[in-house]
Amino acid sequence: MDIARIPFQTHGDSRGMLVALEGARDVPFEIRRVYYIFATQDAVRRGQHAHRSLTQLAVAVRGSVTFLLDDGTGPAEVTLDDPTSGVLIGPMVWRELHHFSEDCVVMVLADQWYDPTDYIGDYEQFLREVQSPARHEVAGAWPRR
Ligand code: TYD
Asked: Rounded mean pLDDT of the chain?
Protein backbone atom coordinates (compact mmCIF):
# COMPACT_ATOMS: atom_id res chain seq x y z
CA MET A 1 0.00 0.00 0.00
CA ASP A 2 1.02 3.62 -0.43
CA ILE A 3 2.05 5.31 2.80
CA ALA A 4 1.07 8.97 3.21
CA ARG A 5 3.70 10.96 5.07
CA ILE A 6 2.83 14.50 6.09
CA PRO A 7 5.68 16.96 6.62
CA PHE A 8 5.11 19.59 9.32
CA GLN A 9 6.14 23.18 9.35
CA THR A 10 8.92 23.63 11.91
CA HIS A 11 9.70 26.79 13.80
CA GLY A 12 13.34 26.63 14.76
CA ASP A 13 15.68 29.21 16.18
CA SER A 14 18.69 29.31 18.47
CA ARG A 15 16.49 28.14 21.38
CA GLY A 16 15.42 24.91 19.68
CA MET A 17 12.56 23.61 17.57
CA LEU A 18 8.76 23.83 17.77
CA VAL A 19 6.04 22.12 15.74
CA ALA A 20 2.38 23.23 16.00
CA LEU A 21 -0.42 21.05 14.66
CA GLU A 22 -3.82 22.64 14.14
CA GLY A 23 -6.87 20.52 13.31
CA ALA A 24 -8.09 20.80 9.71
CA ARG A 25 -5.06 22.96 8.88
CA ASP A 26 -1.80 21.11 9.47
CA VAL A 27 -3.70 17.86 10.02
CA PRO A 28 -6.34 16.83 7.42
CA PHE A 29 -9.14 16.38 9.98
CA GLU A 30 -10.59 17.97 13.11
CA ILE A 31 -8.77 16.53 16.12
CA ARG A 32 -11.04 14.84 18.67
CA ARG A 33 -8.47 12.80 20.58
CA VAL A 34 -4.76 12.68 21.31
CA TYR A 35 -2.97 9.75 22.89
CA TYR A 36 0.64 8.75 23.18
CA ILE A 37 2.51 5.51 23.67
CA PHE A 38 5.72 5.37 25.67
CA ALA A 39 7.76 3.05 27.93
CA THR A 40 7.54 0.28 25.34
CA GLN A 41 10.01 -2.56 24.85
CA ASP A 42 11.85 -3.35 21.62
CA ALA A 43 10.36 -6.87 21.45
CA VAL A 44 6.78 -5.63 21.88
CA ARG A 45 4.28 -5.54 19.01
CA ARG A 46 1.36 -3.17 19.48
CA GLY A 47 -1.64 -2.26 17.40
CA GLN A 48 -2.51 -5.43 15.50
CA HIS A 49 -5.90 -4.08 14.54
CA ALA A 50 -7.71 -1.92 11.98
CA HIS A 51 -10.42 0.69 12.43
CA ARG A 52 -13.60 0.75 10.40
CA SER A 53 -13.92 4.55 10.32
CA LEU A 54 -11.14 6.19 12.36
CA THR A 55 -8.47 8.36 10.75
CA GLN A 56 -5.24 8.98 12.66
CA LEU A 57 -1.94 10.77 12.30
CA ALA A 58 1.02 9.20 14.10
CA VAL A 59 4.23 11.03 15.00
CA ALA A 60 7.34 9.70 16.71
CA VAL A 61 7.96 12.79 18.82
CA ARG A 62 10.97 11.04 20.33
CA GLY A 63 12.91 7.93 19.34
CA SER A 64 11.83 5.56 16.61
CA VAL A 65 9.22 2.94 15.83
CA THR A 66 8.32 0.93 12.73
CA PHE A 67 4.74 0.77 11.45
CA LEU A 68 3.52 -2.10 9.32
CA LEU A 69 0.48 -0.91 7.38
CA ASP A 70 -1.80 -3.00 5.17
CA ASP A 71 -4.93 -1.77 3.38
CA GLY A 72 -5.65 -5.23 2.02
CA THR A 73 -3.42 -4.83 -1.05
CA GLY A 74 -0.33 -5.99 0.85
CA PRO A 75 1.81 -4.73 3.71
CA ALA A 76 4.28 -1.85 3.67
CA GLU A 77 6.54 -0.65 6.43
CA VAL A 78 7.66 2.80 7.45
CA THR A 79 10.00 3.77 10.26
CA LEU A 80 9.07 6.95 12.11
CA ASP A 81 12.08 8.61 13.69
CA ASP A 82 11.49 12.29 13.08
CA PRO A 83 9.20 14.68 15.02
CA THR A 84 8.82 16.93 11.97
CA SER A 85 6.57 14.58 9.99
CA GLY A 86 3.79 12.09 10.57
CA VAL A 87 2.11 9.19 8.86
CA LEU A 88 -1.58 9.37 8.00
CA ILE A 89 -3.56 6.18 8.62
CA GLY A 90 -7.10 6.14 7.25
CA PRO A 91 -9.95 3.72 7.89
CA MET A 92 -9.60 0.03 7.07
CA VAL A 93 -5.82 -0.15 7.41
CA TRP A 94 -4.31 -2.96 9.47
CA ARG A 95 -1.46 -1.61 11.60
CA GLU A 96 1.26 -3.17 13.72
CA LEU A 97 3.85 -1.15 15.63
CA HIS A 98 7.19 -2.78 16.37
CA HIS A 99 10.89 -2.10 16.94
CA PHE A 100 10.28 0.63 19.49
CA SER A 101 13.46 2.36 20.61
CA GLU A 102 13.80 2.53 24.38
CA ASP A 103 13.11 6.27 24.40
CA CYS A 104 10.24 6.14 21.88
CA VAL A 105 7.18 8.34 22.38
CA VAL A 106 4.54 7.98 19.63
CA MET A 107 1.87 10.65 19.63
CA VAL A 108 -1.35 9.89 17.76
CA LEU A 109 -3.96 12.44 16.72
CA ALA A 110 -7.38 11.00 15.94
CA ASP A 111 -10.56 12.32 14.36
CA GLN A 112 -12.91 10.44 16.72
CA TRP A 113 -13.28 9.70 20.41
CA TYR A 114 -12.21 6.30 21.64
CA ASP A 115 -14.71 3.68 20.45
CA PRO A 116 -13.90 -0.02 21.04
CA THR A 117 -16.65 -1.03 18.55
CA ASP A 118 -14.69 0.62 15.71
CA TYR A 119 -11.84 -1.92 16.11
CA ILE A 120 -11.24 -5.03 13.99
CA GLY A 121 -8.80 -7.14 16.00
CA ASP A 122 -8.68 -10.20 13.79
CA TYR A 123 -6.66 -10.05 10.56
CA GLU A 124 -8.80 -12.59 8.70
CA GLN A 125 -11.92 -10.62 9.65
CA PHE A 126 -10.21 -7.43 8.45
CA LEU A 127 -9.47 -9.05 5.07
CA ARG A 128 -13.07 -10.21 4.75
CA GLU A 129 -14.39 -6.70 5.46
CA VAL A 130 -11.87 -4.80 3.34
CA GLN A 131 -12.42 -7.10 0.38
CA SER A 132 -16.22 -7.22 0.66
CA PRO A 133 -18.02 -6.02 -2.51
CA ALA A 134 -20.53 -4.05 -0.39
CA ARG A 135 -17.73 -1.90 1.00
CA HIS A 136 -16.46 -1.05 -2.48
CA GLU A 137 -19.95 -0.07 -3.62
CA VAL A 138 -20.14 2.40 -0.72
CA ALA A 139 -16.58 3.64 -1.31
CA GLY A 140 -17.31 4.20 -5.00
CA ALA A 141 -20.65 5.93 -4.44
CA TRP A 142 -21.10 9.61 -5.23
CA PRO A 143 -20.68 11.99 -3.50
CA ARG A 144 -17.44 10.61 -2.14
CA ARG A 145 -17.02 10.88 1.62
P1 TYD B 1 -4.63 -0.73 22.94
O2 TYD B 1 -5.71 -0.51 21.93
O3 TYD B 1 -4.37 -2.12 23.39
O4 TYD B 1 -3.26 -0.11 22.40
P5 TYD B 1 -2.42 -0.52 21.07
O6 TYD B 1 -3.38 -0.46 19.94
O7 TYD B 1 -1.33 0.51 20.99
O8 TYD B 1 -1.86 -1.87 21.22
O9 TYD B 1 -4.95 0.19 24.20
C10 TYD B 1 -4.42 -0.06 25.49
C11 TYD B 1 -5.48 0.35 26.50
O12 TYD B 1 -5.75 1.74 26.43
C13 TYD B 1 -6.79 -0.37 26.32
O14 TYD B 1 -7.27 -0.74 27.61
C15 TYD B 1 -7.70 0.66 25.71
C16 TYD B 1 -7.15 1.96 26.25
N17 TYD B 1 -7.33 3.09 25.35
C18 TYD B 1 -8.15 4.13 25.75
O19 TYD B 1 -8.76 4.10 26.84
N20 TYD B 1 -8.31 5.21 24.93
C21 TYD B 1 -7.66 5.29 23.74
O22 TYD B 1 -7.83 6.30 23.01
C23 TYD B 1 -6.82 4.20 23.32
C24 TYD B 1 -6.09 4.23 22.00
C25 TYD B 1 -6.67 3.12 24.17
From this structure: 94
Q: Tell me, yes or no, whether 75 lies in a domain.
A: yes
Ligand 1: centre distance to CA 9 (Å): 29
DSSP letter assigned to residue 23: B
Domains identified in the chain, total number? 1
Q: Cβ < 6 Å from ligand 1: which residues?
A: 33, 35, 37, 46-47, 114
In-domain check, residue 141? no
Query: Which CATH number fits the domain that encloses residue 107?
Result: 2.60.120.10
Range of the domain at 100: 3-8+22-132
Q: Give catalytic residue positions.
A: 49
Examine the pLDDT at 136 and tell me if it is beyond 80: no
Q: How far is the CA of 132 from the centre of ligand 1 (A)?
A: 27
